Amino acid sequence: MFVFGKFIIGIAQVLDILLGTYKWIVIVSALISWVNPDPYNPIVRFLYSVTEPVFRPIRRMIGYRLGPIDISPLVVILAIIFAQTFLVGSLIEIGKRF
After folding, report:
1. Integer Cα distance of 98 and 84 in angstroms
2. 70 — pLDDT class (breaks 50, 70, 90)
3. Which long-range contacts (CB under 8 A, 24 or more apart) does 45-50 make?
4. What is the mean pLDDT of residues 15-21?
5. Which of 20, 2, 8, 7 is nearest to 90 (CA)?
6. pLDDT score of 98
């Protein structure tokens, strides 16, 4: 059971790193959207392809109720913070019990 607990803690740490990395990708994507980026730039295309599938359903649900302000990156960042706090924290606590 000791090995299983360490395995769960390892999964939680990897998940935390992945969520943290994606959070920074969302932040960079939101910052780049403030300027007029070149749509053919490979970095801009990567950011768009990684974040747009997550932003699109949120934009459909929320819409543009605040006018021209797009709050979908903020919603995604808050969801990531919640997942890091709740999911990763819970997995670490479960791993410590084994």
Report:
1. 21
2. confident
3. 50/22, 50/25
4. 97
5. 8
6. 83
Q: Which of 73, 85, 93 is nearest to 19 (CA)?
A: 85
Residue 26 predicted with pLDDT over 80 = yes
Tokens of 80: 């990531």
| Domain encompassing residue 38 | 2-97
Give the 3-state DSSP-derived string for the chain, with helices as H, strands as E and coil as C.
CHHHHHHHHHHHHHHHHHHHHHHHHHHHHHHHHCCCCCCCCHHHHHHHHHHHHHHHHHHHHHCCCCCCCCCHHHHHHHHHHHHHHHHHHHHHHHHHHC
Query: For the chain, what is the domain count?
Result: 1
